[in-house]
Amino acid sequence: MVREDGPESPAPHRDPRLRRRSAWRRSALRLVALYALTLLMVTTIVFFLPRAMPGDPIAALQDPNSSLFVTDPDARQRLVAGYGLDRPLWDQYVSYLRRLTQGDLGFSLERKAPVSSVIAAHLPWTMLLLGASLAMASAISFAGGVTAAWNRGRLRDRGLLVAATGARALPPYASAALLLLGLAVLVPVFPLSGATTAFADYSSPFERVADVAHHLVLPATALTLAMLTAMFLLVRNTMVSALGQDYMVLARAKGLPDRLLKYRHAGRNALLPFVALVGVEVGFAVGPAIFVEAVFAYPGMGSLILRAVAARDYPVLEAVFLVLAVMVLTANLAVDLFSARLDPRTVTA
């Protein structure tokens, strides 16, 4: 008796959405591992970078003209031993990594306070400045890039190009100084320095928020000018290449309004590279932020870095650079993950 087998049933196909989700998870794990390795490398650089500068805290402890000068030689020796500066460099590095795993950022040589408390007092102001500037630069550059591309070759396009190029050509400290001179000295509309009014007695939380925003306008404007040009040019160029595509001709033939054509059709092509560039700009904005904070005496991480460099305060310098690096890496990781979600084609299986 011959057994007749029917045709083999085809292997069940997985849902494409499940495949994309699984691929995105694998890509996310690879990204996290890559950023963790990058963080370890940054941590090593952060440790050795302050020690590459001329001078050290020991010299400051022995200099009568230094604010850290200690008159008692025995006390100086105990301080040096307490901070581990008398041990070999490799031993200091291992001890540094061990302390980091325990969440210990060290003790400030100059301020005589835990570094974590020093960072906590300055980091929120830098995050506020960077966040406000990044939001302003993103909104202005995206809207300006779409408008310039839509009016390509016309007066509005040329004017926006000239303005964006001029903003890029001006160094951040120069634009900050001009804003300070024009709107805080000659026309005293905004405060000269600081993040809040000294000894202010606020009657409500809204009054404090208004005072903080009033002090934030000029520093955020100076940092925004340093950030928006690259994003503006990216959006404009991407939009210009999209306007000549077939789907845009079809959309025009359907009689869609200009607002939908600009933002829903052509603008979506610029969204993915724009989001990626925003993450890159976070890293590039850290340097200009230091100069802007110095000009406006803004109590952020920039002013903390300048003071720690002058005193060769190794624990503070290590912690500041590490925290800033973590901020930049986290922002870039978030952008990479969001880009993969925004366009599944960027996810490799």
List the helices and strands and how they pair.
Layout: H1 16-51, H2 57-62, H3 73-82, H4 89-101, H5 115-150, H6 155-169, H7 172-186, H8 205-243, H9 246-253, H10 258-296, H11 301-311, H12 314-342
Explained architecture:
The structure is a single chain. The protein is mostly helical and about 350 residues long. It has a domain at about 125-310: MetI-like fold (Orthogonal Bundle). It has helices spanning about 15-50, 55-60, 75-80, 90-100, 115-150, 155-170, 170-185, 205-245, 245-255, 260-295, 300-310, 315-340. It is globular and about 85 Å long. The two termini are about 50 Å apart. Mean pLDDT is about 80; it is low at about 10.
Structural class: mainly alpha
The ordered string of helix (H) and strand (E) elements is: HHHHHHHHHHHH
Question: What is the straight-line distance between the termini?
Answer: 48 Å
| Count of individual helical segments | 12
Q: Any guess at the CATH architecture of the domain at 125-312?
A: Orthogonal Bundle
CATH fold label of the domain at 125-312: MetI-like fold
Could you tell me the radius of gyration in angstroms?
Answer: 27 Å
- What is the number of strand segments? 0
At the first level of CATH, the class of the domain at 125-312 is Mainly Alpha
Using the alpha-carbon principal axes, give the shape. Answer: globular
Oligomer: single chain
Helix content: over 70%
Please summarize the sheet with the most strands. none
Assigned CATH superfamily of the domain at 125-312: MetI-like
What ranges have pLDDT less than 50 throughout 5 or more consecutive residues?
A: 8-12
pLDDT averaged residue by residue = 82
User: Strand fraction band?
Assistant: under 5%
